[in-house]
Amino acid sequence: MTGIFSGIRILELAQWIFVPSTAALLADLGADVLKIEHPTLGDPVRGLRTQGLGGSVNLTVEQNNRGKRSLGLDLKAPGGRDLLLRLVDHCDVLMTSFRPKALDKLGLDAETLRKRNPRLIYARGHGLGVRGPEANRASYDMSAFWSRGGVAHTLTMPGAERLVGQRPGFGDHTSALNLAFGIASALFHRERTGESSVVDVSLLSTAMWVLSSDVAYAGNPEYDPHALYSATPTNPVTMTYRTRDGRHIALVMLQADRHWAEFCRCLSRADLIDDPRFVDAETRARHAELCIDELRSTFERHDLDHWLGQFEHLDAAWAPVQSVRELHEDPQVRANQYLRSVEGADGTHYDLIGNPCQFDEQVPDLRPAPEAGAHTEEILLELGLDWDEIAKFRESGAI
């Protein structure tokens, strides 16, 4: 089942992270992804380097382009577009991040390509949607998802001097899951009915889905998404507490009465179990500030490691607030193979985040990302071109 998309050929006409990372997820599961890149410039993301890596591996490229084949193709050079159209004839899916006006100018819009290949699933990943006055506005993760999509505003504490900082690829990778779901759904629909589809996912629509509770409630003029930051929680065992060494531990005990006694014993505070101020959830809600003060002062008596030992057998939802370095080495992450070791062409080993979807408890191996244009001749030979034709396209600058 790790090759669930074996036999599916995908043409990726995209740059940066959103759409390419979608294609990487499908390549993990067996799809043959042909990445179209400019023959001399490549995908602009190749110009980025992971900060502080201290090596030659571009982890941004590797994470979002693993397992693909790369074809160097200049669509504006003589014969370049014709070559792409010949590839379209033999593909199941075309994925693109180009804006509508650019696709129309190149004659690569959905209507044109689906007339040429009626079975083609045409998948678009974009910033603000394909309709409306801003459909052709330049968009990136930070503009369309983080800023326009309300994420930065919602996550920033009222009165803060600066906005919460966006993490690299946050909206791109979230949107990629939606686009992969859309493509898989379209392939299923085609298998059942023979009909192809146009699939659209935007960074803006994904932000709204991520914030769906807040956005839905926003129709009420009295709703304030920041109220939870300032209001005293009514359930003291569903919040975060600071430990003596400046770390934090998160408690999520929604069925508070079910866990209260066991939790207090783990705290070595059995005296709180029958305290008349805290005896049940309703009473704790009335005395929430007092209860929180008791728990806060208790947690601050010991370091995080102490509490990890105390809570080891607590059958309730809780977790340490981890750094990404700790997450990288988390035994649970390793046990589930959420990080996969990859060997690059030069023998370098590095970890990439694996596909979040696993089938039958099998974890697909990851292959390194290709060098720009590394498979150009291989793909063209598969397309039926001979060496003389390939030479002519190379002379024209198309490849």
Explain briefly what this protein structure is.
This protein is of the alpha/beta class. Helix content is 40%, strand content 13%.
Features:
alpha/beta, Rossmann fold, formyl-coa transferase, domain 3, six-stranded parallel β-sheet
3D architecture notes:
The protein has 399 residues and is an alpha/beta fold. The protein has two domains: 9-212 and 336-396, Crotonobetainyl-coa:carnitine coa-transferase, domain 1 (Rossmann fold, 3-Layer(aba) Sandwich), CATH 3.40.50; 232-322, formyl-coa transferase, domain 3, CATH 3.30.1540. The protein has 19 helices and eleven strands. The chain has helices at 18-28, 59-65, 80-88, 100-106, 110-116, 141-147, 151-155, 170-193, 203-210, 212-217, 227-230, 256-266, 281-286, 288-299, 304-310, 324-328, 331-335, 376-382, 387-396; strands at residues 9-13, 32-37, 69-72, 93-96, 121-126, 198-202, 238-242, 248-252, 318-320, 339-343, 349-353. The strands form three sheets. It has a six-stranded parallel β-sheet with strand order 3-2-1-4-5-6, sandwiched between helices. A three-stranded antiparallel β-sheet has the order 7-8-9, with helices on one face. The protein has a two-stranded antiparallel sheet with strand order 10-11. A hairpin with a 5-residue loop joins strand 10 (339-343) and strand 11 (349-353). Helix 1 crosses helix 8, helix 6 (141-147) packs parallel to helix 9 (203-210) and helix 8 (170-193) packs across helix 9. The radius of gyration is 26 Å and the shape is elongated. The chain starts with 8 loop residues before the first strand and ends with a helix. The model has no long low-confidence stretch (mean pLDDT 93).
